[in-house]
Amino acid sequence: MPTADGRRDGADGPRPVNGRHSALTLTVNGTPHALTLDHRTTVLDLLREHLGLTGTKKGCDHGQCGACTVLVDGRRANSCLLLAVAHDGRRITTVEGLAHADRLHPLQEAFLERDALQCGYCTPGQICSAVGVLAEAADGFPSHVTPDTAPSGAPVALTADEIRERMSGNLCRCGAYPRIVEAVADAAAAGAGVGGR
Ligand code: FES
Ligand code: FES
Questions:
Q1: Which residue stretches belong to region Disordered (predicted)?
Q2: Would 127 be classed as within a structural domain?
Q3: For residue 70, which of 28, 121, 24 has the smallest C-alpha distance?
Q4: Whose CA is nearest to atom 4 of ligand 2?
Q5: In a domain, 92, yes or no
């Protein structure tokens, strides 16, 4: 479990190596990595340039497109906005970590079934974001379009409006939005969980 300041239990925080680098440990898709990183390294660059996990895409590098979405301790985040040294002891899941052995995550299956992509560049971020959406709705997090009359803390039904609102931070330049909404709705209706490692 994360501690109050967000670190995992037992993690002491990054250890300074020199004025520019610190040592830390991150668990990515279930594998712990002991790393020494420049303090300016983002989680996105760590994943792509240091760990070779290129499924997570760099679109804007400014927190505006959602292409870099990953899960940090199960909650979605734009990895281009996260400094790796601030995440010592955290558990990160990328699109590469969603499948179990040769079985795709239900959201990956739903995107394929609905043909919810064209060029595919935004798709890893869309799928990671959708995994986060399912968890947030199940945990009762309201969105801007959740009715005021909805019972506080109760799971939120993922209507098309809810999906559109909750996925609005993930841009698709190919305009695959209608199929993306259908895919997320299919996965929600099938009771897909968070999954991943
Ligand atoms: S690359 Fe991170 S939000 Fe666009
Ligand atoms: S499928 Fe091309 S950007 Fe979304």
A1: 1-21
A2: yes
A3: 28
A4: 172
A5: yes
In a shared domain, residues 68 and 126: no
pLDDT digits (tens, 9 = 90+) for 19-55: 999 999 999 999 999 999 999 999 999 999 999 999 9
Give phi and psi for 21, each to the nearest 5.
-130, 150
For residues 5 and 14, give the distance between their C-alpha atoms in angstroms, rounded to a whole number: 13
pLDDT class for 12, splitting at 50, 70, 90? confident
List the CATH number of the domain containing 110: 1.10.150.120
Instruction: State the average pLDDT for the chain.
Output: 93
Name the closest ligand to CA 122. 2
Would the CB of 143 count as within 6 Å of ligand 2?
Answer: no
Q: Is the CB of 103 under 6 A from ligand 2?
A: no
Number of domains in the chain: 2
**Residue 191 pLDDT:** 85
Is any ligand 1 atom within 6 A of the Cβ of residue 114?
no
**CA of residue 196 to ligand 2 center, whole Å:** 23
Q: Which of 33, 62, 97 is a domain's end point?
A: 97
169 in any annotated domain: yes
CB distance 66 to ligand 1 below 6 Å: yes
Kindly provide the b/e burial profile for residues 54-91, where b requires at least 16 CB atoms within 10 angstroms of the residue's own CB.
ebbbbbeeeeebbbbbbbbbeebbbbbebebbebbbbb
Ligand 2 centroid – CA 24 distance (Å): 34
pLDDT band at 193 (very low <50, low <70, confident <90, very high): low
Centroid of ligand 2 to alpha carbon of 129 (angstroms): 14
